[in-house]
Design a protein that fits this description.
It comes from Vibrio ishigakensis. Its EC number is 6.3.5.4. It catalyses: L-aspartate + L-glutamine + ATP + H2O = L-asparagine + L-glutamate + AMP + diphosphate + H(+). β12 (199-202), α5 (207-219) and β13 (238-243) form a beta-alpha-beta unit. The longest helix has 19 residues, at 290-308. The chain starts with 6 loop residues before the first strand and ends with a helix. α4 (178-191) packs across α5 (207-219) and α5 (207-219) runs parallel beside α6 (248-260). It has 349 residues and is of the alpha+beta class. It is built from 11 helices and 15 strands. It is globular and about 60 Å long. The chain has 2 domains: 7-159, 4-Layer Sandwich (Glutamine Phosphoribosylpyrophosphate, subunit 1, domain 1); 177-348, Rossmann fold (3-Layer(aba) Sandwich).
Length: 349
C-alpha cells in the first residue's frame, strides 16, 4: 500500500497516513499533532460540527491547522474517549498519547468510513482503512465494528453508539412530520458542503439523487463554511451521470439537471470498458460480491473522469433512498404521486 505524508515511529507503535486535502486547502499533513507534540492523530473522515467545537476550545487549545479533524485532539485532551459523543461526522482514526503511552481507535456511528483490524503472530494489534494493508503482516483480519472504540489494554472494542430504532416497537409511537424531515434533510446536505474545494453531485435521475442534488443546488451559490456570508468560490454546481449508450437513467438525469440548473456532465461506457475495469474495481472495493462489483464498476469509471476534472468531492443520494422506502411504496397511489410531484417543484424553485 503506497504511503504519502509522514510516518511517526513511537515508543511501541507506528502511525502512518496516506491522505489528500479533499475538503480543505490548509488541512495540514498527517499525522496531526497537538501543540506539545504529545498527541498524534491519523484520521480519515470529516467532522461536520468542527466549527462549533473549535469555538468551544478557543483560547483553550492552540489549533495547528485548518483541518476539521484536528478538533479530535482538542476533545481528547479534555475528555478522553468520551470525545466520540461530541462528533457529528464520518470518521475512522487512531490517536496515540505519547505521554501516557496509550492509544484510542475510533470509528463513526454507523461505519461510513471503512476500518479494519488485525493481529500478527505475536498478538500485536494493527488497524487500517484498507484490508490490503493488513494482509502482509496479520494472521487474522476483521472489520472494526461501527460505533465503537478501542483503548490500549482492552480485550475488545467498546460500543459508544447504540441504535435505539432497530425494532419497530421502539418507534411505533413516533409521529411523522414532513416539515421536520425536510429540515433535517436540508441540514444534512448543507453541512456536507462545508468545503474549500470544487464539488459536485452524482445524479441518476432517481428520487434519492435528485432530491440530494436539488437541495445542494439551493446552497451552492453561497459559501457554507462562513455561514453564507460570502459568495461560493465555485458557485456552479456540477452534476455527473454515467450509463451505457441509450440508458434510461441518462435521460432521467438530464431532465433533472435541466430542471434544477446544474452544469451537467453525461458519461457513457461500453460493456468492454466495464469488463476491463473489473480487476481494478475488485482491488479497490476489496470484495468479490457480484452485486457490489456490478454497482461499483460504472462508479469507478466515472470517478476517474471526475477526478481528472479537478472535482475533489461529490455527494450521492445513498442513504436517502433507504429513508424514502415509504415514499416509494406510497407513490403507487395517484394522490401521493401528485403531492410528490408538487414537492419536487418546491425543491427546484
Amino acid at each position: 500500500m503506497a504511503l504519502t505524508g509522514q510516518v511517526s515511529t513511537l515508543q511501541k507503535s507506528n502511525l502512518g497516513a496516506r491522505a489528500s486535502s479533499d475538503c480543505w486547502l490548509n488541512s495540514g499533513a498527517q499525522p496531526l499533532y497537538s501543540p506539545d507534540k504529545k498527541l498524534i492523530l491519523a484520521v480519515n473522515g470529516e467532522i461536520y460540527n468542527h466549527k462549533e467545537l473549535r469555538a468551544r476550545y478557543e483560547g483553550k487549545y492552540e489549533f495547528q491547522t485548518d483541518s476539521d479533524c484536528e478538533v479530535i485532539l482538542a476533545l481528547y485532551q479534555d475528555m478522553g474517549a468520551d470525545l466520540l459523543e461530541e462528533l457529528n461526522g464520518i470518521f475512522a482514526f487512531v490517536l496515540y498519547d505519547e505521554e501516557k503511552d496509550t492509544y484510542l481507535v475510533g470509528r463513526d456511528h454507523i461505519g461510513i468510513i471503512p476500518l479494519y483490524q488485525g493481529l500478527d503472530e505475536h498478538g500485536n494489534i494493527y488497524v487500517a482503512s484498507e484490508m490490503k494493508a493488513l494482509v502482509p503482516v496479520c494472521k487474522t483480519v476483521s472489520e472494526f465494528p461501527p460505533g465503537c472504540y478501542l483503548e490500549k489494554g482492552a480485550i475488545a472494542p467498546t460500543r459508544y453508539y447504540i441504535r435505539d430504532w432497530n425494532e419497530y416497537a421502539a418507534v411505533q409511537g413516533n409521529s411523522t412530520s414532513k416539515e421536520e424531515l425536510t429540515e433535517a434533510l436540508e441540514a444534512a446536505v448543507k453541512r456536507q458542503l462545508m468545503t474549500d474545494v470544487p464539488y459536485g453531485v452524482l445524479l441518476s435521475g432517481g428520487l434519492d439523487s435528485s432530491i440530494t442534488s436539488a437541495v445542494a443546488k439551493r446552497f451552492a451559490a453561497m459559501r457554507v463554511e462562513d455561514d453564507d456570508k460570502s459568495e461560493a468560490w465555485w458557485p456552479q454546481l456540477h452534476s455527473f451521470a454515467i450509463g451505457l449508450e441509450g440508458a434510461p437513467d441518462l435521460k432521467a438525469a438530464r431532465e433533472v439537471a435541466d430542471q434544477i440548473g446544474t452544469v451537467h456532465h453525461e458519461m457513457t461506457y461500453t460493456i468492454q470498458e466495464g469488463l476491463d475495469a473489473i480487476r481494478d474495481v475488485i482491488y479497490h472495493i476489496e470484495t468479490y460480491d457480484v452485486t457490489t462489483i456490478r454497482a461499483s464498476t460504472p462508479m469507478f469509471l466515472m470517478g476517474r473522469k471526475i477526478k481528472a476534472m479537478g472535482i475533489k468531492m461529490v455527494l450521492s443520494g445513498e442513504g436517502l433512498m433507504r429513508s424514502s422506502v415509504a415514499t416509494y411504496t406510497s407513490t403507487k397511489r395517484q394522490t401521493h404521486k401528485n403531492s410528490t410531484k408538487k414537492q419536487y417543484v418546491n425543491y427546484w424553485h
